[in-house]
Design a protein that fits this description.
homodecamer; alpha+beta; Cyanate Lyase, Chain: A, domain 2; 2 domains; 2 strands; globular; Lambda_DNA-bd_dom_sf (chains A, B, C, D, E, F, G, H, I, J); EC 4.2.1.104 (chains A, B, C, D, E, F, G, H, I, J); lyase (chains A, B, C, D, E, F, G, H, I, J); Cyanate hydratase (chains A, B, C, D, E, F, G, H, I, J); Cyanase (chains A, B, C, D, E, F, G, H, I, J)
Chain lengths: ~150, ~150, ~150, ~150, ~150, ~150, ~150, ~150, ~150, ~150
C-alpha cells in the first residue's frame, strides 16, 4: 500500500458513506481547503487527525499510518493538466503570469508570494447573472535575501 | 514589428519614463490587473485606450495599431514556468489542483470556473509577521451543458 | 476500482451484450454525443442515469457509484493523439487554429467559444462521391470581461 | 523572406488598410474559412489569387511568389496551444476524442474523417442567452483499405 | 482484458504454436502486411476472421470479441521509437520528410498521400552485395479541397 | 551564412527561376529523390555538383562551398511533424512500426533495413479511382553482428 | 535591448577588461555568489549598484536601467541542463532528492527549505588527494501553514 | 520483486517500527545522508549492511539480496520535480546554475565538481528569525583532461 | 509473461545463484558485451543458447521461448538517462557529438559508423593514478549511397 | 558575438582556407579529438592556443578572447539527436546502456567511468569487408564515496 492507494480508498469510502469534503474537514478540524488537500495526498495529518479520519472512513491501520507521513506532493498526472476545471487555473497563470510578476514586484520589490505560508478560501459568490466561484488567496511575501 | 516587440517596447519606455503599471492602468481606465495583462500582450485595447497609451509611452503608429489586435495569448516561454514568483502559482495548482476540483464540484456540480468571465484583485495585506500578498479571484461558474 | 476501470468494464459489457452507443444513449436519455462521452469517463451521470446504465450493462454497485462522481477529464493517453481518426481532429486545430481565432475575433471580438456551454451533433452526410461525416458544433461565445 | 514573414506582412498590411478576413476572402474568391487559412500560411494560392491579394495588400513580388508555394503546415507554436480560444478546441478533442472515435466507427466502420477532403463553415448563431459560435464541419469518410 | 492483452496473448500463442505471421495471414485471408498489423492491434477483423484466428491460436471468447472492435491505433511506446529497426523508418522521415513533400507537391499539387487508402508490400530483394528489404507503398493522392 | 540559409536561398531562387526539383536533379546528375534531399540540406554534393547548382541558381561562392560540407541532418522542426503530408508518413510508422519489425525479422532474422545503403523511387501510379503515390524503398538488410 | 542582451554584454566587457566575478562583486558590495547571480540576470540591483557596475564595465544607460528591473529568472536553456558542471548539481537532486525530503521532514516536519531566504558560500577546500569544491547552503525552514 | 518494491517495503516497515532514518543510518554505520540515499535505492549496501538492515526492518531474503545490487539511480518520477521541497533544490540550480559555473571555473579552471567523490551534511541551524536548513556539500574538483 | 519479465527474472536468478555476467556469457558462448545485452533484452538468442541459459538460471519454458524472439530494443526508461553511470555516456555524445561527426566525415566522407555491424570490448585499464575503464568500439563505416 | 558565433565562424573559415580538423589540431598542439571538440565550443583554449588558431583562421580579437572562456557545453540542438551519424551513438547507449552498467559494476563495483578524466582516439580500421571506425575510449573509474 502506497499513499496513492490511500487516496483512492478515501475517495471510494467517501462515496459509499455519502460524506462531503466539508464534513471530512470537520473531522480533521481545519478548513475544507487544507483538509481536502491533505486527504488527497498533499498535506500531512497528525496522529489524532489520521485516527479520526480512519474512524470516519473505516480505513485500515496501514492507511492511518501513511496519512501521518509527509507525502510526495503534486496531485496532477501531467505537467499541463487535461481536466478542464483544473486547466482554467493553469490558463490563468499562462495569461496572467507576467502580470502577477509585474504587480507583485511593483508593490513589494523582488521576491515571491509564499505557497507554503499560504491559505485560501473558496466560496460561492451569488450573482444574478450566474453565481461565481470566489477564491481568496493569501501568501506571505518573501523578499529575496541579499548577502 | 510583432506584438511581442510592442511588449518589449512598452517595458523599456515604462522604465525610461519612470511610470508604474498602476499609472498606466489609469491611462487605460481599467484595473491594474486587466491593464497590465493587456500591456503585456494578453488583452485587447480599444482604439482610444491604445492611443492614450501610445501618447503616454511615445509608441509608434504601428505599435498603437497592434495593441488593438487580439493577441495570441500565453505569456510564458515554457510550459512549467522557471521564474520563482510565477512558479509558486504553478505549484499551487500542482498541489491544490485536485482540491479545487473536489470543492467546486461539491459546491456547484460538474462544470468549471470561467477564466474569461473572470476578474481579480491583487493587494498588500498588512501583517505583523510580514505583509502578505492577497489575491481575490472571481470567475463565473459555468455548468457543463447536457444535451 | 477507479473510474478508468469502469470505462473498461463498460466497453467490454457493451461488446458482450451487443449494444450500440446509440442504444446506451437512449438508456441515459441524452444525445449519443453527450452520453458516449459520459460513459467514456468525461461527464457525470445522475443517480437515475447511473442505475439505468448499471442495469443495462450489469455493472457492480461500485461502478454505479463512480459514474455519479465528476471524473478527472481528458480521454487521450498522449498530448498529441496517435490514433489516426482522433489525430485528424488534432490536425484540424493545427492547420486551422489561427483561422478559428481570426474569424471568431472578427465576428465577436476578444473572447472564446465555450467548450462547456457546448453541444454537438455528429451525423452521416450522404454524398455520391462518398458519404461524409458531418459535425455541427455550437458553443456559447464568451467575451473577455474587462474590469 | 520565408513564408512566415509573408504571414506577418499580411497581418500588418491588413490592419493598416483596415480590411477584414471576409473582404480578403472575396478577393481570393473562396470561403472566409479556406481563404483565411491560406493567408495564414496553411493553403496554397493560385497565381491569380496571389496576385489579387498582392494588389489588395501591397505585397512585394517575392511574397506573391511564396503564396503560390505549398507551405509547411501547422499554425501553432506549441503542441498544446496556449491561446485560450484555440485551447478550447484542443480541449474538445481531449474530452470528446474517444467519443468521436466510438461514434464514427459505430456509424461507418473502421476509417477516418478526412481533414483534406474537408470543408467547414463558421457562423454566428443568435441566442437570447448569448450568441453562439456555430461550426459545421464536413469531411469525407475514408474507410481503411484491406488488402 | 484490454486490446493490448490480446496482442500479448497472440504473440505468446504464436511462439508456442510455432506459427509465422505469413501463416496467420493465410488464416485471415489478407496480405501478411495488413494481417500482421491487425493482429498487432492496428486493424479490425471481421467476425469470421476473428473466429478463425481464435481457433488457430486458442484464444478465449473475450479476445475474439475484442479483435472485432476498432482499436485505439498507434503501436509504439514513445514518440521517437527506440527500437533500431523501427527507428530507421523514423530517420527516413526525418531525413527525407521535406523531400517527400517537395516531390509529391511538384507532381500532384497541394494534398497528401493517404495512409488510409493505402497498401504496401514488403519483400526480400536478392542482391549479390547483400539482400535488400524492398517495400512498395501505394497511397491514394488526396488533393486539398478548396471551398 | 549557415547551411539552412543555403536551403532557404535555393528554395527562393528555384521559385524565381521557375525550375523544378526534377530539373535541378538533372543538373546534379542523380535521381530526383537523392538530389532534392541534397538541396534541402540532407546530403553532400561534390565540388562539380555544387558548382553546377550554383550556376543554375546564381548562388554565391559561400553557398557553393557549404553545399560540399556534410550537413547536420534532420529536416523537420519538431519530433512529431505537423505538416499533414509528412505526418502521414509518421503515422504509417506509428501504425505499422511493429508490423515492419515482425515481418522483417521473420524474413531476415534480427537486424535492420539500412537507411544509409538505401534508395527510393517516388512515382505517380495512375488509377481510375484517383491516382496514387507509389514509393519503392530499397534498403540493404544488415544483420546484427554477434561477437 | 532585453535583459539577456545585458548579460551578454556584461560577459563580453568582463573579458575585455580582464575583471573577475569576485572583483565585480566588490563593486556591487555583496558576496560573489549573490553578485554573480545578479549580473547573470537572476537578481535585481539597486540604482547605486547598477551605476557602479555600469561604470566598471562601460555599460550604456539602457543596460544600467534594465539591471534595476526584476528579471524573469531561470538561467538555463533546457529543463535538464546539458553543461556537465551544471548537470552534476541536477544529478545530485536526482539521486539525493528523496533523501533531502526524508531528512528535512524528519528534522523539521512538513515544509521546505526556502530558496528565497537563502544564502550560500562557495569555496576551495584544499585536500591532498585533490582540492574540493565546498558549498555551504543555508535556507530558512518554512513549515506548511495549517488553516 | 524489484528494487523499487524494496524501497516501498523499507518505507512501510520503518513507519510500523517507528524508526528514524538516523537510527537506520546507525544500523548501516554511515552518515544519515548516504544511508538514507542507499535505503531509498540510490547506493549499494555491503552484505553485512544489508543483513543488518534486513534484521532491523524484517525484510525478506530477496530484499536483502537486492540491497546489495547496484541500483538504477534516479529517485524522481519526473524530470522537473513536482514536490515543493525537492523543487526548491531544482530552482536553486535553475537560478544559480550559471553562477555555480562561473565561480567554479574562475576558481578552478575548466572542470566539474564531482557528484561521485562527494559527501554532504544536512543539519539544523538555529536562528532567532526561524531555524534554517544548512547543507554542506563537498565534491572533488575534477579538471577536464587535455590530451 | 513479456520480455521485460524475463529480464527481471534473469537478474533475480543471477543474484540468487551468485553468477556473474561473464559466467553467463560463457554459457552463451559469446563475448560478455553481446551476451549481457542479449540477457538484458537487446539481442536474440538461438534455441541452443536460450536452453543453456534456461538451464543455468532455472528459467521456465515460456521464458526460454521468449529469449528466442527478437525483442523491442531500447534498455532505458527515459530519453535522457538518469543513472549517473549511463548518463556519462550520454554526456559524451552531448559534448563530443559534433566532434564524432566532424572527424568521421573528414576521414571517411558522408556516412555513418554502423551500430549493427558493431562490436565492442570493455576492459579494466590499470593505472597508478586510478584504474580506468577502457572501451574499444568498432563499427563498419557505411557510406551514404548516391543514386 | 557569442561562443556559437565563433563556432560558425571557425567552420566557415576552415572551409575557405581548406584546412582539416587534423591540421587545426596541430596548430593547437593536442589530439584531433580534443582539439576539434574545443573548436566546436566544448573545451577551453589557453591564450597561446587561441591566438594560434586566431592566426590560422583569421579570427577577430573578440573571437580569440571568447575561445579562452569556458563554454556552456552541449553540442546538440535536441535531446535525441536527429543526425544519423550522431544518432547511432545515442542508439548504442539506448541498446547497451544497461550492459555498460552491468559490466562496469561487475568489474569495479558501484561508481562511474569519468567523462572528464577521459580521452579517446578515433581511427580508421582497415577491413577487407569494408573499413571500420574504431574508437578507443578511456575514462578513469570513480568509485562512489561512502561517508
Amino acid at each position: 500500500m502506497q499513499r496513492e492507494d490511500v487516496t483512492d480508498l478515501i475517495v471510494l469510502q467517501k462515496i459509499k458513506k455519502k460524506l462531503t469534503w466539508t464534513q471530512l474537514a470537520e473531522v480533521i478540524g481545519h478548513s475544507k481547503e487544507w483538509s481536502t488537500a491533505a486527504l488527497l495526498g498533499q498535506m500531512t495529518l497528525t496522529e489524532a487527525q489520521a485516527k479520526a479520519i480512519g474512524a470516519a472512513l473505516d480505513l485500515p491501520e496501514e492507511a492511518i499510518a501513511l496519512l501521518q507521513v509527509t507525502p510526495y506532493k503534486g496531485s496532477l498526472p501531467t505537467a499541463v493538466p487535461t481536466d478542464p476545471l483544473i486547466y482554467r487555473f493553469y490558463e490563468l497563470i499562462s495569461v496572467y503570469g507576467t502580470t502577477f510578476k509585474a504587480l507583485i514586484h511593483e508593490e513589494f520589490g523582488d521576491g515571491i508570494m509564499s505557497a507554503i505560508d499560504f491559505n485560501m478560501d473558496l466560496t460561492r459568490e451569488p450573482d444574478p447573472k450566474g453565481d461565481r466561484v470566489r477564491i481568496v488567496m493569501s501568501g506571505k511575501f518573501l523578499p529575496y535575501k541579499t548577502y
